[in-house]
Design goal:
The chain is an alpha+beta fold. It has helices at residues 44-52, 94-104, 109-122, 138-150, 168-185, 196-202, 220-225, 230-235; strands spanning 4-15, 18-29, 33-37, 59-64, 67-68, 79-82, 156-160, 188-193, 205-210, 213-218, 240-248, 251-254, 257-260, 270-276, 282-284, 291-300, 305-311, 314-320, 329-333, 340-343. The chain folds into three domains: 4-230, Rossmann fold (3-Layer(aba) Sandwich); 240-277 and 334-349, no CATH class; 282-333, OB fold (Dihydrolipoamide Acetyltransferase, E2P) (Beta Barrel), CATH 2.40.50. It is elongated and about 80 Å long. It starts with a strand and ends in a 6-residue tail after the last strand.
Length: 349
């Protein structure tokens, strides 16, 4: 990863005396694809807008390349933004929409044409220069908005839920295209979404937020497999969470049974939260299984079946490639390295 490019130091933002961003500390590296992820109202868009200069923090500092830019206006920052509403100019064609910022810089016509053509190639729309924007599909308009942003060669590109208005298939295609575009351009992308799939697919780093606070920062793989708390475990993918007790090194009990585990850093007999992802359970014959229960529902999800299994009055979600009939009694097995333990915090999640 590159050098530190942006740093937020003790940044807070208040609306109506409520802290929507609360003492946030975060740094972003050069050439990084970082995603601010969380539910509505968690502070992610406000954080993005403060980085862009559209909002001023009430407390703290924003440092860019070692310079304090907290009160620097947006047009003086080497940053461009792609909003959820693409904000294209309806009276201008595609070429003039993309060239708008370059013309304001008084660049030579030949340079403007070359840079617009290059930007259109990057978004896979090389023959669209003379099209009217109102005749473009939502996905094409989204690409033009990105082309208009990258044509200015910013150091940083802010993207505020730019795929939210697209249909599922196009949204999935654009996820891969955006990641590839970021890799080719070498621009730092700061992306805001509430969609966990987008975050897991595209990001180098994910920042999970709730109520203006950072819950966890890490790689997609790390956050998915090692969530810090119940909120992260439930928000990033599906999770089965059990109340358990860490008996001694490498042993934990939950659901009335003792299991081998690999997580460390807990005291003997400490109460813990036990997380097991649905895909980490293996189905085995019920006879002799530590965990066994009845299948209460089975739904085909396209790639796998999602089973709900009732064990001791608790519903457990299991993903499997082989279907099981409702009412069937099955056993469940989980390997030690698939059992993740968390410190017990509050139970509001």
């Amino acid at each position: 990863m590159g050098k530190k490019l942006i740093e937020l130091r003790n940044v807070s933002k208040l609306y109506d005396n409520v802290k929507v961003v609360n003492n946030l500390n975060l740094y972003i590296n050069e050439n990084e694809f970082i995603t601010l992820l969380g539910p509505s109202g968690c502070g992610k868009t406000t954080t993005l807008r403060m980085i862009g200069g559209f909002e001023l923090p009430d407390e703290g500092e924003i440092i860019l390349n070692g310079v304090n830019v907290t009160k620097v206006p947006p047009y003086e920052r080497p940053i461009n933004t792609v909003f959820q509403r693409y904000a294209l100019f309806p009276h201008l064609n595609v070429f003039d929409n993309i060239a708008f910022g370059l013309k304001n810089q008084k660049l030579e016509k030949i340079e403007i044409r070359e840079r617009v053509e290059q930007a259109l190639k990057l978004v896979s729309l090389p023959d669209f220069a003379l099209r009217k924007v109102q005749n473009l599909s939502g996905g094409q308009q989204q690409r033009i908005a990105i082309a208009r942003a990258i044509v200015n060669k910013p150091k940083i590109l802010l993207l505020d839920e730019p795929l939210a208005a697209l249909d599922l298939k196009l949204r999935q295609n654009m996820q891969y295209e955006l990641k590839e575009m970021q890799r080719k351009l070498g621009i730092t992308f700061i992306y805001v979404t509430h969609d966990q799939e987008e975050a897991l697919t595209m990001s180098d780093t994910i920042v999970v937020m709730k109520d203006g606070l950072i819950q966890q920062i890490g790689t997609p793989f790390g956050i998915y497999n090692e969530p810090n708390n119940r909120f992260v475990a439930n928000f990033i993918g599906e999770s089965n969470i059990f109340e358990g007790k860490y008996i001694k090194t490498n042993y934990v009990t939950f659901m009335g049974k003792e299991f081998e585990c690999v997580d460390i850093g807990f005291l003997d007999n400490e109460i813990v939260d036990v997380v097991i992802r649905p895909e980490d359970f293996d189905i085995i014959p019920a006879k002799g299984a530590k965990l066994k229960g009845d299948v209460s529902s089975s739904v085909f999800k396209g790639v796998h079946f999602e089973l709900c299994v009732m064990i001791l009055g608790k519903e457990i979600v299991v993903h499997t490639y082989e279907n099981r009939k409702v009412g069937e009694t099955i056993g469940l097995k989980v390997d030690p390295y698939e059992i993740h333990l968390m410190k017990v915090e509050n139970r509001e999640y």
